[in-house]
């Protein structure tokens, strides 16, 4: 009798925010970067993608639903991921003929992001990591997270880092086929569990210049860029690994802010220039400087907050749990009326006295207060997690609401 079973596997996957940025491709098709990068994986209690991979002989073609809308799956990047996973499954089946031939069956994929998609919140990273991990689980592949990162990388570069929790490097590699351009665990979340992040959402709109287009323009036209890729980033990667190994927040913060500024500098050095940071982003920089100046005035000899910006205006501010009152407390005082403080993490934050932070740059404090729509409080977290809640039911129907 024909096998009409609906095979299913589900996973959740995290977002990651780089502290040493990936910007520039040396191979656009294989998604190979010009430099290594390093990120912090953020907790799935706050931001996550949930994806179910299913397959069955009763399905007629491969499909993907994202947040209940059917997606175009003909894109080369998604197709490269599906092809790579099917070929691993086919090899698995060839070496173990008792396995059902899942590699030949159409896939029905259903996914949900619990945060805005394509709004500079790294949805593509969580999305491709979840997709690759869910299909690998469905296919019962023995692949390690590093092996799966080679596949996720082809979907979206930053996705390769979301296969791990904690502190994660993506080694650029040198092989032309990309076989050594993969993610590696630098340190588990438990090594430095006190790392927190406040995401200040300045805009949830889709960005004007996509990462892919922006990177290509930078590689082609920026004369600053080769210096960043060849000299600045390699030294920073080593220094950042040391900062994480030593739980040295002063070094972590300094490197994080410098590298964000360097990335946005090469964007500005692109022809035509690319502006991802806005007036509100620049106000966030000034307010973080004000928070650090207030801490210094109290005799704290290291920065307590570090900003970083991806390809959009939203600020991500890293800080340690012990400095929550100074950092998250300052944001609560300045941005208390926006969405986000009602969460378990937000409710316990006490609004701080921000007189000195405001005095540091009154205009910045005002611009920030008027320009931030939402705050997401989170912290370092774990990698993808297999879950039993499926977004495709036993009858094979997608059940996204
Ligand atoms: N859950 C998901 N499953 C599969 N693909 C997804 C998922 N979420 C997002 N994507 C893909 O990622 C695209 C969004 O990527 P894009 O780089 O534009 O935004 P972003 O990742 O939110 O922002 P940024 O990369 O600047 O942080 C979506 O259009 C979709 O193709
Ligand atoms: C600024 C960044 O967030 C760029 C992320 O770029 P993507 O991974 O979204 O790019 P593609 O590989 O073209 O999909 C920095 C980073 O995450 O390291």
From TrEMBL:
<protein>
    <recommendedName>
        <fullName>Diphosphomevalonate decarboxylase</fullName>
        <ecNumber>4.1.1.33</ecNumber>
    </recommendedName>
</protein>
<dbReference type="InterPro" id="IPR053859">
    <property type="entry name" value="MVD-like_N"/>
</dbReference>
<dbReference type="InterPro" id="IPR014721">
    <property type="entry name" value="Ribsml_uS5_D2-typ_fold_subgr"/>
</dbReference>
<dbReference type="GO" id="GO:0005829">
    <property type="term" value="C:cytosol"/>
</dbReference>
<keyword id="KW-1207">Sterol metabolism</keyword>
<dbReference type="InterPro" id="IPR020568">
    <property type="entry name" value="Ribosomal_Su5_D2-typ_SF"/>
</dbReference>
<keyword id="KW-0456">Lyase</keyword>
<dbReference type="InterPro" id="IPR041431">
    <property type="entry name" value="Mvd1_C"/>
</dbReference>
<feature type="domain" description="Mvd1 C-terminal">
    <location>
        <begin position="198"/>
        <end position="385"/>
    </location>
</feature>
<dbReference type="GO" id="GO:0005524">
    <property type="term" value="F:ATP binding"/>
</dbReference>
<dbReference type="GO" id="GO:0016126">
    <property type="term" value="P:sterol biosynthetic process"/>
</dbReference>
<feature type="domain" description="Diphosphomevalonate decarboxylase-like N-terminal">
    <location>
        <begin position="13"/>
        <end position="182"/>
    </location>
</feature>
<keyword id="KW-0756">Sterol biosynthesis</keyword>
<keyword id="KW-0547">Nucleotide-binding</keyword>
<dbReference type="InterPro" id="IPR029765">
    <property type="entry name" value="Mev_diP_decarb"/>
</dbReference>
<dbReference type="InterPro" id="IPR005935">
    <property type="entry name" value="Mev_decarb"/>
</dbReference>
<comment type="similarity">
    <text>Belongs to the diphosphomevalonate decarboxylase family.</text>
</comment>
<keyword id="KW-0753">Steroid metabolism</keyword>
<keyword id="KW-0444">Lipid biosynthesis</keyword>
<comment type="pathway">
    <text>Isoprenoid biosynthesis; isopentenyl diphosphate biosynthesis via mevalonate pathway; isopentenyl diphosphate from (R)-mevalonate: step 3/3.</text>
</comment>
<keyword id="KW-0443">Lipid metabolism</keyword>
<keyword id="KW-0752">Steroid biosynthesis</keyword>
<dbReference type="Pfam" id="PF18376">
    <property type="entry name" value="MDD_C"/>
</dbReference>
<dbReference type="GO" id="GO:0004163">
    <property type="term" value="F:diphosphomevalonate decarboxylase activity"/>
</dbReference>
<keyword id="KW-0067">ATP-binding</keyword>
<dbReference type="Pfam" id="PF22700">
    <property type="entry name" value="MVD-like_N"/>
</dbReference>
<dbReference type="GO" id="GO:0019287">
    <property type="term" value="P:isopentenyl diphosphate biosynthetic process, mevalonate pathway"/>
</dbReference>
<dbReference type="InterPro" id="IPR036554">
    <property type="entry name" value="GHMP_kinase_C_sf"/>
</dbReference>
């Amino acid at each position: 009798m024909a096998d009409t079973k609906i095979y299913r596997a589900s996973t959740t996957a995290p977002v990651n925010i780089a502290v040493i940025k990936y910007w520039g491709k040396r191979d656009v098709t294989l998604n190979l970067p010009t430099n290594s990068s390093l990120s912090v994986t953020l907790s799935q209690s706050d931001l996550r993608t949930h994806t179910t991979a299913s397959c069955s002989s009763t399905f007629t073609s491969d499909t993907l639903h994202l947040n209940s809308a059917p997606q175009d799956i003909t894109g080369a990047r998604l197709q490269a991921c599906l092809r790579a996973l099917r070929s691993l499954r086919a090899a698995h089946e060839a070496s173990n003929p008792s396995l059902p031939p899942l590699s030949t069956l159409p896939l029905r994929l259903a996914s949900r992001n619990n945060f805005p998609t394509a709004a500079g919140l790294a949805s593509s990273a969580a999305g491709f990591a979840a997709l690759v991990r869910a299909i690998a689980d469905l296919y019962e592949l023995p692949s390690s997270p590093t092996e799966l990162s080679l596949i996720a990388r082809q979907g979206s570069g930053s996705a390769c880092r979301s296969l791990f929790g904690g502190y994660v490097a993506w080694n650029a590699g040198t092989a032309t086929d990309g076989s050594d351009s993969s993610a590696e665990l630098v340190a588990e979340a438990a090594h430095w569990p006190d790392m927190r992040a406040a995401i200040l959402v300045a805009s949830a709109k889709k960005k004007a210049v996509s990462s892919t287009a922006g990177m290509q323009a930078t590689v082609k036209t920026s004369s600053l860029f080769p210096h960043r890729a060849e000299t600045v980033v390699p030294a920073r990667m080593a220094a950042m690994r040391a900062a994480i190994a030593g739980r040295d927040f002063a070094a972590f913060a300094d490197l994080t802010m410098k590298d964000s500024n360097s990335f946005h500098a090469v964007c500005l050095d692109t022809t035509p220039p690319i502006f991802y940071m806005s007036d509100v982003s620049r106000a966030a920089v000034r307010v973080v400087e004000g928070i650090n100046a207030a801490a210094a005035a109290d005799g704290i000899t290291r920065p307590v907050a570090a900003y970083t910006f991806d390809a959009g205006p939203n600020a991500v501010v890293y800080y340690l749990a012990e400095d929550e009152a100074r950092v998250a407390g300052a944001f609560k005082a300045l941005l208390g009326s926006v969405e986000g403080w009602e969460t378990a993490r937000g409710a316990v934050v006490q609004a701080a006295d921000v007189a000195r932070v405001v005095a540091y740059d009154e205009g910045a404090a005002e611009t920030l207060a008027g320009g931030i729509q939402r705050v997401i409080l989170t912290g370092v977290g774990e990698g993808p997690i297999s879950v039993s809640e499926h977004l495709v039911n036993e009858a094979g129907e997608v059940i996204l609401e």
